[in-house]
Design brief:
The complex is a heterodimer of chains A (503) and B (68). Helix content of chain A is 77%, strand content 0%. Chain A contains 23 helices and no strands. In chain A, helix 7 packs antiparallel against helix 15. The radius of gyration of chain A is 22 Å and the shape is globular. The chains are: A mainly alpha (503), B mainly alpha (68). The interface between A and B is medium-sized, with 35 and 31 residues.
Chain lengths: 503, 68
C-alpha cells in the first residue's frame, strides 16, 4: 500500500492533534454562545482560513480532483466564477446584515424577515442536508483510508467519527476554527508538494498537456476553462454561469449555515466582512491545488483509474516519498475532518436554536442549551455514520456531483426568498413560505423528469438549480402581491438593504 | 428554451459577458460609502479599505477568464 512506519507515525500524531485541540478549547466553552459562535471574538484572518477549509475539506480536493480527471480544467469554475463574485457580494453586503442582527443562524434571519415556519423548515432541511453531507464525507474518508492504509471501510468511518466527535463536542466552534486554521497551512503545503512532484513525473506542464491530449479526442477540451453549450460534460458555460454563479454559488455563500456561522463568530462587523474577503483571496488559489492533481493522475494512469475520485489517493501513493506521504495523507484527512466537524457543529446550532429552543423547550437556562448542543452534535455524527454505509451509491455518480445535486434541490428557492426578503419590503410571510415550498417541489419534479425536461444534458443539476430559483422567485412575488398581511416596516427595516448601507 | 438563445454566442462572447459581470461588481462595491466599508473599526488604516481588496480580487478573476 506504500505507507511505511514513519508515515503511519505522522498520521497518528495528526489524529492526536485534532483531538488535543478540541480538549484544549473545552476550557473556553462556558456558554451556548461560546459553543456555537466561539464567543463572538474571532479575528478576520482566522475566519477566512476557517471558511476555506470548511468549504474545501472533502468534496473539493477529492471530488474536485475527480471532476478534473473526468472533465478537465472546467472544474476550476467551481472556485473561480463559481465562488469569488458570490463571496465578495456576500462578504460586503449580507454578512453585515447577519452580524448586525445578532443571529446565530441564517434561518433565524429568515424567521425574523418572514415567519417562524420559514425558519423552522429551513433549519430542518439544512440540518438534514448537513447530516447527509457528513455521511458522504465519512464515505470519502473511508475510501481514502482504505486506499492508503488498507483499513476496512467501516473501521475507517468509526475512527474518523470518534476523532472528529471528541474534538467538536469538547471545544465547540473555537476548536473547529483552530483546526481549520492549522489545516489550511499544511493543506497548501501538501497540495504544492503533490503538484510539484506530479508535474516532475509527467514532464512538466507541456508533458502533462501532451500526455492528456494523446489519450484521445474525448480529452481535447481538458485544458479549457469554458465549454460550449453542446458539451457532453455537465458543465456548458451557460450552466456554469446561470446555475452555478448566479444561483448555487450565491445561495451557498450567503445562506449556507456552516459558512456564514464562521463570520458570525467575528469580534466586529469589519472583521466579519474582511474574513469573507480573505477567504475569497485564498480561494483564488484553490483551483490550482485541485485541478492539477486530477490532470496529473489522468496523465500518469492513461485514464486507467476505475473511479476518478481515486485520483488523489493514487497520487499520494505513487508520487510522494516516505514521510511526505504520511504527512500529506494526514493533511487530507485533517481537511476532511475539518469539514465534518464544521458541518456537525452547524447542524447542532440549527437544531438547537431554530427548533429545540424555539419550538420544543423554551426559556431554559443557557447551560441547558449548551448541553443540548453537545448532545445534538453526537447524534448528528451517529446518523452520518449510518448514512455513510450507503456510500457506494455516491461513488457511482461521482461524489462531487452527488453533493451538488443535494444542494440544487433547495439552495435555489432559499436564495430566492433571501434576496426578495432583503431587497423588497413587500415580500410577505405567506409569499416567503409559498416560494420556498414551490421551489423545492419544482426542483424535485425536475429531477424526476430530468430526461424529458433536459434532453441531451448529462447531469442537469445546475439548470435545475436555476429554474427552482426562478420558480421560488415568481411564486414568492405573486403570493406576496395578493397577501393581505405583510411584515410591519419598522420590524424589518433593520433587515433590509437600504437602511444598512445608509446608516 | 431560455438557454437556446445562448447557443449562438461564441466562446469569446461568453468570456466578455463574464468579464463585464465581474467589472460591474467591482464598480458597484467601489461606489459604496466609506463609512459602511469601515464599519466596526474606529481608526481605519489604508490596508483595511475593503474596496481595495475587492478591486484586486475582481481584477485577478478578469485576468483569469481573459487568458484561459
Amino acid at each position: 500500500m506504500g505507507i511505511m512506519w514513519l508515515d503511519l507515525f505522522i498520521i497518528l500524531i495528526y489524529f492526536a492533534g485534532i483531538v488535543i485541540i478540541g480538549i484544549i478549547y473545552k476550557k473556553y466553552v462556558k456558554s451556548a454562545e461560546d459553543y456555537f459562535l466561539g464567543g463572538r471574538s474571532l479575528p478576520w484572518w482566522s475566519i477566512g482560513m476557517a471558511i476555506v477549509v470548511s468549504d474545501i475539506g472533502a468534496h473539493e480536493f477529492i471530488g474536485g480532483a475527480g471532476g478534473a480527471y473526468r472533465y478537465g480544467f472546467v472544474q476550476g469554475n467551481y472556485d473561480w466564477i463559481g465562488c469569488i463574485p458570490a463571496m465578495v457580494i456576500s462578504g460586503i453586503f449580507f454578512i453585515g446584515y447577519f452580524w448586525r442582527a445578532g443571529v446565530y443562524t441564517v434561518p433565524e434571519y429568515l424567521g425574523r424577515r418572514y415567519n417562524i415556519w420559514v425558519r423552522v423548515i429551513q433549519a430542518l432541511v439544512w440540518t438534514l442536508f448537513m447530516i447527509g453531507l457528513c455521511g458522504v464525507l465519512f464515505w470519502i474518508i473511508a475510501i481514502f483510508m482504505n486506499e492508503m492504509l488498507g483499513w476496512p471501510i467501516l473501521v475507517s468511518i468509526l475512527i474518523t467519527a470518534i476523532i472528529g466527535g471528541i474534538s467538536v463536542v469538547s471545544g465547540g466552534m473555537g476548536a473547529v476554527v483552530m483546526n481549520n486554521v492549522l489545516q489550511l497551512v499544511v493543506m497548501f503545503a501538501g497540495g504544492i508538494a503533490i503538484i510539484g512532484l506530479g508535474l516532475n513525473a509527467t514532464g512538466g506542464l507541456s508533458g502533462l498537456a501532451d500526455k492528456i491530449h494523446n489519450l484521445g479526442p474525448e480529452f481535447s477540451d481538458h485544458f479549457k476553462l469554458l465549454l460550449p453549450t453542446n458539451t457532453k460534460t455537465p458543465y456548458p458555460w451557460t450552466a456554469i454561469l446561470f446555475g452555478l454563479s448566479f444561483v448555487l454559488s450565491p445561495a451557498y455563500w450567503i445562506a449556507n449555515q456552516s459558512i456564514v456561522q464562521k463570520a458570525l463568530c467575528a469580534k466586529n462587523e469589519w472583521n466579519a466582512k474582511a474574513g469573507f474577503l480573505w477567504a475569497a483571496v485564498l480561494k483564488t488559489f484553490i483551483p490550482i491545488l485541485i485541478v492539477f492533481p486530477g490532470l496529473i493522475a489522468l496523465a500518469m494512469t492513461g485514464n486507467g483509474l476505475a473511479d476518478g475520485d481515486r485520483a488523489v489517493p493514487y497520487l499520494i501513493k505513487e508520487v510522494l516519498p516516505v514521510g511526505l506521504k504520511g504527512l500529506v495523507f494526514a493533511i487530507f484527512f485533517g481537511a476532511l475532518i475539518s469539514t465534518i466537524i464544521s458541518l456537525a457543529s452547524s447542524a447542532a446550532t440549527l437544531w438547537t436554536k431554530d427548533f429545540y429552543q424555539l419550538i420544543l423547550i423554551k426559556n431554559k437556562e443557557d447551560k441547558h442549551y449548551l448541553f443540548i448542543g453537545r448532545l445534538t452534535t453526537i447524534i448528528v455524527i451517529v446518523l452520518a455514520v449510518i448514512i455513510s454505509t450507503f456510500g457506494k451509491i455516491f461513488s457511482e455518480i461521482g461524489i462531487f456531483a452527488a453533493i451538488q445535486t443535494m444542494l440544487a434541490v433547495f439552495q435555489g428557492p432559499t436564495f430566492a426568498i433571501l434576496i426578495l426578503g432583503m431587497f423588497w419590503k413587500k415580500a410577505s410571510p405567506a409569499g416567503g413560505l409559498s416560494g420556498m415550498i414551490a421551489g423545492v417541489v419544482a426542483a424535485v419534479l425536475m429531477f424526476i423528469f430530468s430526461k424529458n425536461l433536459f434532453p441531451g444534458s448529462v447531469d442537469p443539476f445546475l439548470f435545475i438549480a436555476w429554474w427552482s430559483f426562478v420558480v421560488g422567485l415568481i411564486v414568492t412575488v405573486i403570493v406576496s402581491i395578493f397577501s393581505k398581511k405583510s411584515m410591519p416596516e419598522d420590524k424589518i427595516k433593520e433587515l433590509m438593504y437600504s437602511s444598512s448601507i445608509e446608516k | 428554451m431560455f438557454f437556446s438563445f445562448f447557443d449562438s454566442i461564441s466562446m469569446q462572447g461568453a468570456k466578455i459577458f463574464i468579464v463585464v459581470i465581474l467589472a460591474v461588481i467591482a464598480v458597484w462595491i467601489c461606489a459604496l460609502p466609506g463609512k459602511y466599508i469601515f464599519k466596526g473599526i474606529d481608526k481605519p488604516k489604508l490596508w483595511q479599505n475593503l474596496k481595495i481588496w475587492v478591486v484586486l480580487l475582481m481584477g485577478v478573476q478578469i485576468l483569469i477568464y481573459l487568458i484561459l
